[in-house]
Amino acid sequence: xxxxxxxxxxxxxxxxxxxxxxxxxxxxxxxxxxxxxxxxxxxxxxxxxxxxxxxxxxxxxxxxxxxxxxxxxxxxxxxxxxxxxxxxxxxxxxxxxxxxxxxxxxxxxxxxxxxxxxxxxxxxxxxxxxxxxx
Length: 134
Fold this sequence. Notes:
Layout: E1 20-21, E2 39-41, E3 46-49, E4 52-55, H1 58-69, E5 75-76, H2 77-84, H3 95-110, E6 115-120, E7 124-129
Antiparallel strand pairs: 1-4, 2-3, 3-4, 5-7, 6-7
């Protein structure tokens, strides 16, 4: 299972599906630099990137957290499924289909924020900044 980082406070209100301009972290009110590496707060399912906050489901947050820890390198399907399902090797029968759905949802959310998920068919996924796709 992916460990959660400790932060004070909670994000209130409904969860918008697109990035929102912010100047402070919604979890801990810490000031954000103008350009920060993308980071997922697992306690609030929030992606912080380039002065934007993006609210995610818990499964989306876990997948993105794992991908961002290895950014821009590829992460295998098996590593992502293991992270999602708490160390159950292979996960449930529907794990691969669920993973593909989470990645599809993340692609729609991340592209406007300047991040892209790439696929290496038969292996896994990686995250890159849109301007740095090779």
